[in-house]
Design goal:
alpha+beta, single chain, START-like_dom_sf, disordered N terminus, 7-stranded antiparallel sheet, SRPBCC family protein, Alpha-D-Glucose-1,6-Bisphosphate, Chain A, domain 4, 170 residues
């Protein structure tokens, strides 16, 4: 019998940032998605969300809008300040609705030394079926890896240059 983990396709991005765990965590969780998610191959830029409060409380839900007039729903699942946060993305209106039921993401922050933090970003894609899994492996995973890597580079830069709103720190 197949386990759930055998059905999941994962994309993982790891990066070291030259800032404290607190600064790295806040730069990530409080990022303006339209500033970090730029078009990458088949994946469109994010142009905004409908969220009107800080994205720091478990259970918050926001709609994310893309440049191609599609959208998704994102729910913040768990937050452990300065260590970890996780979320799920679902209700795709793009062609992803044919490939996946949901994507679950998590960020893990690990102190490397006084002013260095490792960020590990995992993206777990739940294919709808075997054919969808094949297409995800063939194209989507590579595009998602580039999309997430580019976004994490911007988070890294924002963390290292302290380009964050200090009122949103947790």
């Amino acid at each position: 019998m197949k386990t759930n983990s055998q059905k999941i396709e994962q994309v993982k991005v790891i990066m070291i940032v030259n800032s404290s765990v607190k600064e790295a965590f806040n730069a990530a969780i409080q990022s303006d998605l339209s500033n970090i998610f730029k078009k990458y191959k088949s994946l469109p830029s994010i142009i905004g969300t409908d969220l009107t409060e800080s994205w720091i409380k478990e259970g918050l839900v926001r709609t994310i809008f893309f440049e191609d007039d599609t959208q998704v729903t994102e729910t913040l699942l768990k937050v452990i300040p300065h260590e970890f946060f996780s979320y799920k993305v679902e209700n795709f209106t793009s062609t992803l609705r044919y490939l996946t039921t949901k994507i679950e993401g998590d960020w893990i922050f690990t102190k490397k030394n006084t002013n260095q933090t490792q960020i590990e970003w995992n993206y777990n894609i739940y294919p709808k079926n075997v054919f969808a899994k094949f297409l995800i492996k063939l194209t989507l995973k590579k595009d998602l890896h580039g999309y997430l890597t580019n976004a994490l580079k911007i988070v890294k830069q924002n963390s290292e240059t302290k380009k964050m709103n200090p009122n949103q720190f947790i």
